[in-house]
Structure formats: structure tokens, C-alpha cells
Amino acid sequence: MRKKWEGDEIRQMLLTGREIYRTGLLLAHVHHQRKQKKAHRERMLRRLLTHAYAKVPYYRELFDKQKLRPWQVRMIEELSLLPITRKSDLRERPLSEILSNGTDERRLIKRETHGSTGEPFMVYRTWIEERLLQFVRRQAMSHIGIGATDRSAKLMSVNRISSNDRNSFHRLAETLGLFQEIPIDCLLEPEEIAKILARTQPNVLIGYPGVLVEVAEVVRRRPTLAIALKTIVTEGEILTPVVRRHISQIFKAPVYDSYGAHEMNLIAWECGIEPGYHLCEDSVIVEVLKDGRPAKPGESGEITCTALYSYTMPFIRYQLGDVVVVGEDRCRCGVSGQKLLEVKGRTIDYFRLPEGRLIHPFEIVDRGLYEEWIKQYQLVQEAKDKIRITLSTTRMPHRDEMLSVEKSLKDFLGEGIHFEIVLASHIPREPGGKCATYKSLVRPPYLNASSDLKT
């Protein structure tokens, strides 16, 4: 049945379509002036805020509580006048309050995320909003050598693909041999995934590091399943140096990490020239906050994002719960804009130890889990004074290597904290296909850790 378009919907599509063109011109020229990019972003920000105030009850209430009107926030620096929104704020509201007025959810593309708490949360977009974000992602990936004619295999949870996301556009692109993407269920056994890859022969591989390293092990044991890759892109989990090296060596291809969220799509991608991640500044405004103020280069803080092209379900000053390290505002590769040096982990993963001591698991990792024989790790706080550390290794470690790791961890954690190191062939995956690198069984999963953390 032919879709009946309403006036507001058509106008929004035309406006967004024009911005696709403008954004395309900006992204196609990585050397464009910083002033030009900032003006574009602020123009889109003002349009987003005006729309959210007029059409989305949650944000109208937010503005009214602050005694603000959208035209009072004209520059990126003035976003701080608005309070931060967290996933819990949106989850407890009915859809009618967080979606744009008059939206028919049955027509929308849905992306399910379980986030930090494991509780499901649905993100809604129109088809054209989704296309724009995919366009931004593809432009970003072009900087690491992935083009329109490349054939990509994406290891993902296939049951989360929205039925509204397939149409004549995809069929035409596939007919022309453009933007070919082979979805492969990441929950399949690694050997089955390796067989599918060998049969389909993609030249780009995308997936969770924890899944890719298991598939790489299969390929190492069975060289007949090897594939010729030009690029590997990791997403969704922390990429450790050991896992990066292991995947790259076995598949004989460079590995680039990406950082994103269902709410924003791609947020940043790893530079191929210098350390760090380039922000997708044309589609997302990123703030990194330390104790409520903007973090300086080299400082870590919580990341807060504003999605410039999400009108159906806006995300304005939306705190993802991730800790990142701010980088410099320059790069030798020529891509202009702010960089992140590192994506460290989630604030909700902090371990609360006896006597109120608070540490993030990456502090434990930094003290001894970057050894070349450690492939993957998982840290589980089982009690306030007990941490279980599971290590998946590339080989059996020598006794002195284990003693060295144990001593380093003991020196950092102190006498009152007991830890157990368990060697395993692999780390079990969560229901969605990811490996839970850090997990605390002490704090209730629904508790918002970010409210009392000093990052």
C-alpha cells in the first residue's frame, strides 16, 4: 500500500535532504575552514532546538524549567545552559513525550540498545534520518580507505535489524554493486562465521573485537578459511592492544577502531596517521565534562552528545555514560576538528571498594593486563573486596610472568582486596554478542553511577 505523506513530514524530508547535500560538501573536503564548519553546526543546532521545543513535550518541559527559549541558545558554547539528559530520563517517559508530535512509530526504523544497565531502550528514526547518519559514517570510513565499491561483512546481532530499513534504495545500490554489506549473526559459533566469510570473501570486516578475535583463532588453526582483507573495523567494545595485534596479524590487515552508540550512530573513528579518534563533528556535538566543566586536552571526562540530525527522537546534551580522554584540535592527516585520545569505558563500570574507594577497571588493566600473551580479559567485582579476573591467552604464560602480573595488581589494589586470576580458552559472550569486559555485581545495575563520580 502506498504511503500517505503528511505536510510536516514532507517539509522535514526536504529540509533534511538539503542538509544532506550541504553536509556532503563539507565532509568531502577535509581541509575546509574551521569557521565554516562551526557555522554549519550552529545553524543545525538552532534548527534542532527550535524543533525540539515546538514538537517534543520532554524538551519543551526541559526548556520551560530552565526559563529558556530555543533562540537563546545560538552557539555551541551556550548548550551548557541546558541540563544534561540521561537514558533513564527518557526511558521513564511514554513515547508520546519523547517522540516528535504526530509521529507514527510503526513507520520508523528501530534500533534497540541495552546500554550500560542491560535494560532495553529503543531508538527511533525516520528512513531519511538513518540514511543521513549512514552517509556520515561512510564519509568517515572513506578516510581509512573504505570506498563505495568495497564489500563489507558486518558481524552483528541480526535480530535487531529493523524491517523498515530495507527498501528500493538498498536493492538499487546492491544491483549497482555499491555499499554492499553482508550481515552475519555474531552469535553464531566462530567456526561457522569463519566459513561464511570464506564463502562470501568480503574485503572489509566489521565487528566486536571479542567476536573477531575468536574468528581469527579459527582462521589461524584452519588457514584454508583465510580471506583477503584490506581493512578491519572494530566497534562496540574496548579494543585492547593485544586483541588489535592478534586480529591484524592473523587476517593480515590493519585494524581501525570506531566509537559510536545507537542513539548517535558513529561518534568518532580512529585516525590512520596519528593516535586518537576524529569526532564526527558534522553530525554530533560532543562535550567532554570533568566535574561539570569542559575537560582539557589530556584530561578524562564523561562524554555528552547532541545529535544534530535526530528530529524524530532528539538527543540533546545526552550523557552516554562513557569516559573518554580529550585530544588536541589538530592532526597531521588533514581532518580538522577536535580529537579524542582514548575511549576508556563506562562510568557505571566503576568498582566501589571498601572504605568508599572508587576505581575504574581500566586502572586495573593499566597495572598489568597489557602483557603480549594476554588476548582478552574480563574483570568481575563479586564483592566489595573480591575481584575475579578471567584471562584468555595466546599461550600458556610462564610462572614468572604470572607472578609479575599478580604482584603488580596486589601493589595497586592493596592488602584488603582479594583477587583471583582464572585462565580460560575464551571469554563467554553476552546475549547481544558482546563480551562484558568489566562487570560489577556489587552495585545495583539500575543505579546511576555518574551522579557521584569524579572522573
Q: If you had to describe this structure to a student in words, what would you say it looks like?
A:
The chain has 455 residues and is an alpha/beta fold. It folds into 2 domains: 7-344, Rossmann fold (3-Layer(aba) Sandwich), CATH 3.40.50; 350-452, GMP Synthetase, Chain A, domain 3, CATH 3.30.300. The protein has helices at residues 7-28, 34-55, 57-65, 87-91, 95-98, 127-142, 168-176, 190-200, 209-221, 241-251, 361-366, 399-413; strands spanning 85-86, 109-113, 121-125, 151-156, 180-185, 204-207, 231-234, 255-261, 265-270, 277-279, 284-290, 293-294, 300-307, 318-326, 339-346, 351-352, 358-359, 374-383, 386-393, 418-424, 438-440. The strands form 4 sheets. Strands 1, 4, 5, 6, 7, 8, 9, 10, 11, 12, 13, 14 and 15 form a 13-stranded mixed β-sheet that branches. The longest helix has 22 residues, at 7-28. The radius of gyration is 22 Å and the shape is globular.
